[in-house]
Design a protein that fits this description.
binds coenzyme A; alpha+beta; Aminopeptidase; 7-stranded mixed beta sheet; 5 helices
Amino acid sequence: MIELLNSKHKRADFDCGKDLLNNYLKTQASQDVKRKLAACFILAEPKSNLIQGFYTLSNYSIPLHHFPEYIQKKLPPSYTSIPISLVGRLAIDNKFQGKGLGKILLIDALKRCLEASIVMGSFAVVVDPIDSEASIFYEQFGFISLPDSSKMFIAMKTIKELFK
Ligand SMILES: CC(C)(COP(=O)(O)OP(=O)(O)OC[C@H]1O[C@@H](n2cnc3c(N)ncnc32)[C@H](O)[C@@H]1OP(=O)(O)O)[C@@H](O)C(=O)NCCC(=O)NCCS
């Protein structure tokens, strides 16, 4: 079940192999949620509340000139900053990696971003891969690197096509 982070979720046991992401979930996620800086979605085992994975979503913007030229040409130059949806973090616990759960979480995140874009403009979903392996993971789903940045994006129009 994928649900918003709550106090029943066992955050202390989470280990995806990346300290930065583990510590985020353990020490910062609930603060970010309280401050409305991020929404944090948890995939947990229903009875034990053991966290299998999580991701965060936030509103964000990217300067127009950070997008590849072919995208810039399609957008009005008066929009110097482009509204996007940020999947700030996404991780699966070591015990559950390689079972398709990362894919399930990413698809869930993309679906939520697409739904949100109906009521609040968002040109793309952007991710911030933690390392080159994570970039390869996102590449498989059609994410494209933003030049001069470690971030990657997929246009909302493309996501809409995926869910048709
Ligand atoms: C990257 C991560 C989210 C993938 O989750 P997962 O549940 O292990 O991945 P899945 O089992 O859903 O795999 C989905 C696809 O991605 C591929 N994949 C999985 N992990 C991968 C990796 N590290 N590098 C490249 N491809 C990967 C799988 O082969 C699979 O492809 P297929 O559908 O063609 O079989 C997970 O390994 C993780 O949390 N890693 C540590 C944190 C991290 O790197 N987060 C990324 C965002 S910063």
